[in-house]
Write a structure and sequence with these properties.
This protein is an alpha+beta fold. It contains 23 helices and eight strands.
């Protein structure tokens, strides 16, 4: 086939680097945005944080820059050659330091200051938060203090390493013996002895193989004169499923006890710890920085940006002035970094401006929520906000994800104010969030001896004009982690 040249016209959408950066910054959370900005500031000398600027240092740099620019011999394009003004400025700084040292007796003051600080050790050694022990470290510490042989400690330590985060030994001892090397000469009797030793350590219940054994171990360490202790052991050993299903009538018939004794037994079992190792877990704290703060001004709800969430960026005017006076090589790297710094500042401002516009549109449509709570939440979809602000739905989705609004009723993600709706008898619509709030109110106000079933809740909502099926009520109830009717029943 003979090669030929052809001319073809086509249209395609190309995202510029500036637009790509704007989209990427828009979908970041505030914490992720700050991390991204810190990374860019470290890489780009033309960009700086306004909070970290030292006024004295800036004035000194401006003076030094002016001295460099006034020198006819200075060539900014050749940084390897130092100008005379730079050297003289350095010498002047050295002379100033020497004169200050001679004029004031700093050494004596330092001695006096050190003498004062010696009385307070926390100044020399600042206090730091101690890291809490893990479950394995806590058990190993107790094991090392026990009067046992080194071999027994090592075997027990082997079981400690086999515990899960809840403190349970889920691996069978027979399987563990088969996994051990034969040269260790550890048999099943050694592991049983080590397990008994482990189960006598604190916290009570550690080393159990299942929930029933864990609860029994905790009840056994209680004083024998504890009221209803023996009955609680009987329930846990033989009728734990009946207690979980709240079959109080059957339990009273088995134990031949009254309601008062059953309450004591139930309270005794409920206050046991089903996960003895959970208190040693390391929970990661997730901090939320609200992007928008909603306040009430008279009878109007107003949304404003949170100043603490907005990074203060600006162009480093020291380098910018150098580039402004030296345009001999416009292709050098500093010029491109200056453009990148300007793009970043513009995109950050545009990001917060878009968040503010969307937040104000949400507040305007959800005024009843701020006045009366979640029961007054109205249905809202992304298209309604996108049409009013002339923005694409994907932009609204990025803005409402991982962006938070602090209100007098709490801190919420912007996506919280959007939700599906359910038709009403009057032809209107009710938000799913409002229905969940109504279900919570009904459950909180119910008679615990005769709790409301899902069908009964559906009928009550129907009397208020909200048509909700029983399965929908059950789905909403489970999403809010509300137990079913049989588990909400009290004695």
């Amino acid at each position: 086939m003979k090669p030929t040249l052809q001319l073809k016209l086509s249209q395609q959408l190309t995202l510029t680097p500036q637009l790509q950066q704007s989209i990427r910054l828009l979908q970041l959370s505030t914490l992720e945005l700050n991390q991204e900005i810190d990374r860019i500031v470290q890489e780009n000398p033309l960009l700086e944080m306004d909070d970290d600027i030292d006024q004295g240092e800036t004035e000194y740099q401006d003076t030094l820059l002016e001295s460099q620019l006034k020198s006819p011999q200075s060539n900014l394009s050749e940084p390897q050659e130092e100008s005379a003004e730079v050297i003289s400025a350095t010498d002047a700084g050295t002379q100033l330091e020497t004169s200050l040292t001679n004029e004031f007796d700093w050494s004596g003051r330092n001695e006096d200051f050190r003498g004062t600080r010696d009385d307070y050790d926390e100044y020399d050694f600042p206090q730091q938060s101690s890291e809490s022990l893990s479950l394995r470290e806590y058990l190993s510490l107790q094991l090392n203090l026990s009067q046992t042989t080194e071999r027994d400690k090592k075997i027990t330590g082997l079981l400690i390493d086999s515990l899960n985060d809840d403190g349970y030994l889920v691996q069978d001892l027979e399987e563990l013996v088969n996994l051990l090397p034969p040269e260790l000469e550890i048999d099943i009797d050694d592991l049983n002895t080590a397990l008994e030793r482990l189960q006598h350590l604190d916290p009570p219940g550690v080393g159990a193989c299942n929930l029933k054994e864990c609860l029994v171990m905790q009840l056994q360490v209680l004083p024998k004169d504890t009221p209803c202790r023996d009955q609680a052991l009987l329930i846990v050993n033989n009728h734990l499923e009946s207690l979980a299903s709240r079959d109080f009538r059957g339990i009273k018939k088995l134990l031949h006890c009254d309601d008062n004794d059953l309450r004591i037994i139930q309270s005794l079992i409920i206050h046991l710890n089903p996960r003895p190792g959970s208190e040693f877990g390391y929970a990661t704290a997730h901090y939320i920085i609200p992007d928008v703060i909603v306040t009430k001004n008279g009878s109007t709800w107003v949304a404003n940006l949170n100043p603490e969430a907005m990074p203060r960026l600006r162009i480093n005017h020291l380098y910018a002035n150098i580039l402004k006076r030296n345009r001999t090589d416009p292709k050098q790297k500093l010029f491109s970094q200056l453009d990148e710094a300007k793009w970043l500042i513009k995109n950050v401002h545009q990001r917060f401006d878009t968040i503010l516009r969307v937040s104000r549109a949400i507040v305007e449509r959800q005024r009843q929520f701020f006045e009366h709570g979640a029961v007054a939440m109205r249905p809202l979809v992304l298209r309604e906000i996108s049409d009013s602000l002339d923005l694409h739905e994907s932009t609204i989705s990025r803005v409402t994800t991982q962006k938070f609004m602090r209100t007098p009723r709490g801190t919420f993600e912007l996506k919280y104010f959007f939700g599906s709706h359910v038709a009403t008898d009057s032809g209107g619509a009710c938000s799913a969030i409002a229905i969940r709030a109504l279900i919570t109110q009904l459950v909180n106000a119910e008679n615990t001896k005769k709790p409301l079933s899902d069908q009964h809740i559906s009928e009550i909502l129907g009397q208020q004009g909200i048509v909700v099926a029983r399965r929908t009520v059950a789905k909403y109830r489970e999403s809010m982690q509300i137990p079913p009717v049989n588990l909400r029943k009290s004695i």
